[in-house]
Amino acid sequence: MILIKMEKYILLILFLLLIGFSSIFSQQPNKVAIHFSNATDITEPDKLLEKITYWELLFLNNKIKYDVIYDSDLESGLSAKDYHTIIFPYTRALSNTGYNSVIKYLDRGGSIVAFGELGIYDEKTNYIGLDRLESLFGVIHSGNISEKNMSSYLDLTDYPPLTNNISKKSDIQITAKNSPVLVEAISQNTISIGKIKPESGKNEFDRSLIVLKTNPQSKLLWFSFDPTEVIGGREDSKSIEQIIKNAIVWFNGGEIN
Description:
Blueprint: H1 2-26, E1 32-36, H2 38-43, H3 45-61, E2 66-70, H4 71-76, E3 85-88, H5 96-107, E4 111-115, H6 131-137, E5 139-144, E6 151-156, E7 172-175, E8 181-185, E9 190-196, E10 208-214, E11 219-223, H7 234-251
Parallel strand pairs: 1-2, 1-3, 3-4, 4-11
Antiparallel strand pairs: 5-8, 6-7, 6-9, 9-10, 10-11
């Protein structure tokens, strides 16, 4: 009789533990948010739609759960419990409220992946500059790749787990038609993941096209160029896409083989 009661207690304890573990795991965010910048859409609708479409196809093909969010969603405040990572594919225009919401989201444990000149305009497309980008990622603007170059090349720094499963890490060709921004990392928490390959006779290796900033509670990955601007062939595109996929898994606490 005593053994039967003990077995019941053990089963009850196991049941309660199972519920507790299920509750913990159910609270982990498993979605990514893609930001559709309504303010940017006013001036550059075709370009923004092209980039949003790319991301939706990438996530659908890789079975990554996502939602598209808008300026109103961002400004109202997003929780890291809902989205472990926010993608900013083409958010050139961003309100002060939206920017402050991003900072609060990062402080609460969220992470971001951003591309290009993030928040260089306000919601009325008044030019602000690169202050937001520099402040968020711990960098300083050190120039742009000239359009007259037509294209340029970058070399990736080996930085697991971001660069895991990447076969090609050098001479990745990108277009220069949009004059990609070059930056230098100045924060102790910021490192270069991809540096511009210098032209013959020039020293450009301190200038970066990809940087990662790691805070105790968040991670921030920035690309100067968009994945659609990789023009060197399928292997080049696969390398950049793999970094993005690695980041999404890593930022959500997953392991990359």
